[in-house]
Write a structure and sequence with these properties.
The structure is a homodimer of 258-residue chains.
Chain A lengths: L6 E5 L7 H10 L4 E7 L18 E4 L7 E5 L3 H13 L5 E8 L6 H4 L1 H11 L3 E7 L9 H16 L7 E6 L9 E4 L5 E5 L2 E4 L5 E4 L2 E5 L7 H6 L2 E6 L7 H10 L3
Parallel strand pairs in A: 1-2, 1-5, 2-4, 5-6, 6-7, 8-13
Antiparallel strand pairs in A: 3-4, 7-13, 9-12, 10-11
Helix pairs in contact in A: 1-5, 2-4
């Protein structure tokens, strides 16, 4: 595993056979030694879940060509990153890339996203990390533009040593290359999902529920990821995982005599 | 459901039969109309996972006395909050309480915690929300102190209208009441888990892995939740879910010509 070329850990949440992870590996394989550790089944919406009560399995697979070590794992995207570091790489990779996710992970979606949680897990370990998502949910999506974006952005982050340990959420709009306006550094838009569970009855007359919902952007700012994507920019949100609300902390320290 | 008393939604991640959620309901039932919607099995470490590919079930149960409506749900803690709002309460509760978790959710544990993710989900909906955790993992933990803390803190938050929509991560040390020094408003300590997967072989000779790890606090600050707990304080971290790294955003806007 020791090499002068950077070691690039690649994972995702759509599973190791998804076109998005193959597009990502193709786009960055010239930039270093790629090692893939990804789930053996779809793990969308898994957030930062880890597997505690069940043991994990890993199988070596040849899905990306003979020159790329690849493992499918029975766990969540976060489990994949943990296993990769402890049991496969036996070292800290130079960068972790997650995706390319089939579907948007902008705004509040970052919280539910297995793609971004895998990238965040790596960043907690001090590893520079990027999650990539295309707004095209289709499994037959055209990855021409997302691949170019993944290559350019990864190269730039690898070359800029001041970005060591940084974490990025990159979303790519569905537009032909000639209409893409460039990359925007953004903040996470204030948004949420209005739940609307689809209530049905099974053949035995018992109720069951499918989660559905409507996305609601509550943010009119022009510096958000949602705005950038609506205006044909690639959105790049630098991400952190200190969830402290410092403003409220300060207020309460003044107001409450505890 | 309409009532002049506040509506208190209670959930957890240890499952609806866990002593911790019963302690929580007992401690706050005098403060309003309690409705419980909690998972039907342990969901520790589920983070902000939601259930997409599988439908959800709910069953009404009588586990907290005749005066408390309670539902067990087949989904994750976040699913419970979503279902509670859309299918049970048909309104926004006045407050959402999650826990009392059997085990610490301080520092980086907030990211993996089903308890805190349930509370965060409610906060995304604009609901004032508190996650409670005791540092005692034992299912036979003594809840005398945690119950008093849950009652006092919930009452205070309900009474302070300026805290509407706020989100708190409350951890309670394992000390007799006379040694408890009080409550500290804290920030999330910088910490991580050093993974150490336990590698075994099944009866067929195939490898499998159990996730284990060692907690590593990298933060010497005296304003952190870890410090507070080590010094016999209840730690209260005000929490937010905008994950934007504003410092890096500003730097990149200056440095990068995109």
């Amino acid at each position: 595993m020791r090499d002068t070329k950077p070691v690039i850990l690649v994972t995702n949440d759509d599973d190791i056979t998804a076109p998005g992870i193959h597009a990502l590996v193709d786009s960055v394989r010239s930039l270093g030694t790629v090692v893939v550790v990804a789930p053996d089944r779809a793990q969308s919406g898994m957030g930062h879940a880890i597997t505690i009560g069940v043991p994990l399995r890993m199988n070596k697979v040849n899905l990306f060509g003979d020159d790329i070590e690849a493992w499918q794992c029975s766990g969540t995207p976060v489990d994949c990153v943990k296993l990769a570091r402890d049991k496969i790489l036996h070292r800290v990779p130079d960068i972790c890339l997650s995706g390319i996710n089939h579907g948007a992970n902008h705004s509040i979606n970052i919280i539910y996203s297995g793609t971004m949680s895998a990238a965040t897990e790596a960043a907690i370990e001090g590893i520079t990390s990027i999650g990539f998502s295309t707004l095209d949910y289709n499994f037959e999506a055209d990855f021409t533009v997302p691949k170019k974006v993944a290559y350019k952005f990864t190269k730039r982050v690898l070359e800029d040593k001041t970005l060591h340990g940084a974490l990025f959420n990159v979303n790519i709009p569905v537009v032909p290359e000639e209409h893409l306006k460039g990359i925007r550094i953004c903040r996470q838009a204030k948004a949420k999902w209005d739940e609307d569970f689809d209530e049905r009855r099974d053949p035995h007359g018992e109720k069951y529920y499918w989660l559905t919902g409507n996305f609601k952007n509550m943010d009119e700012g022009e510096d958000t990821d949602v705005w950038a994507l609506e205006n044909n920019y690639v959105s790049v949100v630098p991400v952190q995982f200190d969830l402290t609300n410092y403003k409220l902390k300060k207020e309460l320290e003044k107001r409450w005599k505890l």
